[in-house]
Design goal:
Radius of gyration: 28 Å
Largest sheet: 8 strands, mixed
Shape: globular
Number of strands: 17
Oligomer: single chain
Helix content: 25-40%
Number of helices: 15
Strand content: 15-25%
Distance between the termini: 80 Å
């Protein structure tokens, strides 16, 4: 197997009939990682914002999902900027999943930042600076510019892959509109772009002439009956009309934080990849705010208020809550969504108690959404969705056993048993996960309720030595 080239060529390809771009690029295998909320596709609502029982990866929680749908609609209409929402509920009731569903509904064009309340105290910067950066990451600047693109429906695509690994690939792409059709010759860069987007005949694509970027817009209506079954993510669009090559307004969305980093670091744009942004001076942010205001007046850009999701908000202290209270009154404020599983508890950094560990003056600004405990049927539906997401074939009896475990222990524990049970099944070369596989995984991995019982039994069997504290003189404060 030949060694990969150590040199990387970066050439801009101008796509014209008969032109062939010469560029070599290594094929990188795609790694798909299954996360805790990778199965969520949205909120699963009807057009009138009523929630379906089981849709888009979410189950139950109809009242909370409807409330979240109303909030998403207000965000899209721009009528809720500078407001805050609190999602409160017991652990394992889908608070983070609800926020992820809102992010999916808003789409990629709306900035969505997720942080945890505890990470504010672990960063190498002040608490207010960390919150400021989180706020500005959640505010987008939509910049418009004109560029030349080629847009049409793919009628035929041919790619010749030579047997020799070092030889360059070649191919032909036939695009058409309702008025014309043209054949283009392809080079390595365009072939890699088309392969990455999985372009095939019947797709409507757009190609940026300056960068060679390929974007799949959807499937042509003329090919809507090619298959009997279509996935829920398939989007059908009309075949473009007019010329294939045309000038079009392209919109780019960047966050205020990205503009801050680019203008405050010597390495400019490369500072975004370093990760260590450090603290940014207020003077730099003020200049950027003034410049963005000029762009807005000239019609070159518009502000897109995004969403800042703060999980475990009860971990913030009084200083952070005071900052949030003032920051929500700013003109450049995103929609802040908080989540907590605490009831009446102490505010961090004080001796005062308050609902959810949040000061009352900030609570008055919040729209509070409550999540309810899942029923046994809903737990079973969630486990079925997770088994499908993790590509685990499971028998109905085993699913019922997992549901019982989820009700007795916790839903999260039951979800975490799916993969170990599948590995136990694979070890015995089984085709489906059975109750015996789930039982084996249940014995190997202990839940949070059985673990203290084991430790208590250990203390009873093996007596631990006790240490009697020495008598000390009382301090002036104690006396």
């Amino acid at each position: 197997k030949p060694e990969p080239s150590k040199r990387e060529h970066s050439a801009t390809m101008e796509l014209t009939p008969g032109a062939v771009a010469q560029e070599t690029k290594q094929d990188i295998p795609k790694l798909e990682r299954i996360s805790a909320h990778s199965h969520i596709r949205g909120l699963g609502l009807f057009d009138h914002l009523e929630a379906r029982q089981n849709s888009a990866g979410l189950v139950g929680q109809k009242r909370a999902r409807k409330a979240a749908g109303i909030i998403v609609k207000m965000i899209k209409e721009g009528t809720i900027a500078g407001r805050a929402v609190l999602i409160a509920g017991q652990p394992g009731t889908g608070k983070t999943a609800l926020a992820m569903g809102m992010a999916q509904e808003l789409g990629e064009s709306t900035p969505f930042t997720m942080i945890s309340g505890s990470e504010i105290f672990s960063l190498e910067m002040s608490k207010t600076e960390a919150l400021t950066q989180a706020f500005r990451r959640s505010i987008g600047v939509r910049i418009s510019e004109e560029t030349e693109i080629i847009e049409g429906e793919v009628t035929d695509i041919q790619i010749d892959r030579p047997a020799a690994a070092t030889a360059s690939k070649s191919g032909k792409l036939t695009l058409r509109t309702t008025d014309m059709e043209t054949v283009y010759e392809l080079g390595n860069k365009m072939i890699d772009g088309l392969t990455k987007e999985k372009v095939q005949a019947g797709d409507v694509i757009s190609i940026d002439k300056a960068t060679g970027k390929v974007t799949k817009l959807g499937r042509s209506f003329g090919h809507s009956e090619d298959y009997e079954v279509m996935g829920p993510m398939v989007k059908f669009v009309a075949t473009p009309s007019g010329e294939l090559q045309q000038r079009k307004e392209v919109v780019h969305t960047v966050s205020l934080h990205e503009i801050d980093v680019i203008n405050s670091r010597a390495q400019g744009f490369l500072a975004l990849f370093a990760g260590d942004t450090g603290e940014i001076k207020p003077e730099v942010r003020n200049q950027i705010n003034e410049k963005v205001a000029e762009w807005r007046e000239e019609g070159k850009a518009e502000i897109v208020p995004g969403v800042l999701f703060i999980d475990e908000v009860h971990m913030l202290d009084l200083e952070c809550f005071s900052f949030l209270n003032n920051a929500l009154e700013s003109d450049l404020a995103p929609i802040v969504i908080m989540a907590t599983n605490r009831g009446h508890t102490r505010i961090r950094g004080t001796d005062c108690e308050s609902p959810h560990g949040i000061p009352t003056d900030l609570l008055d600004r919040l729209l509070i959404v409550f999540t309810e405990t899942y029923s046994e049927e809903e737990v079973g539906q969630i486990l079925r969705i997770r088994a499908e997401e993790e590509d685990v074939a499971i028998e109905e009896d085993a699913l019922q056993l997992l549901t019982s475990i989820g009700r007795e222990a916790s839903l999260r524990y039951a979800i975490q048993l799916i993969t170990p049970a599948s590995l136990v099944c694979a070890k015995r070369k089984g085709a489906h996960v059975t109750t015996e596989d789930v039982g084996r995984a249940y014995d190997l991995f202990v839940d949070s309720k059985r673990s203290p019982e084991f430790l208590s039994q250990l203390v009873q069997d093996v007596p631990m030595p006790t240490v009697t504290p020495a008598a000390t003189e009382p301090t002036p404060m104690e006396s």
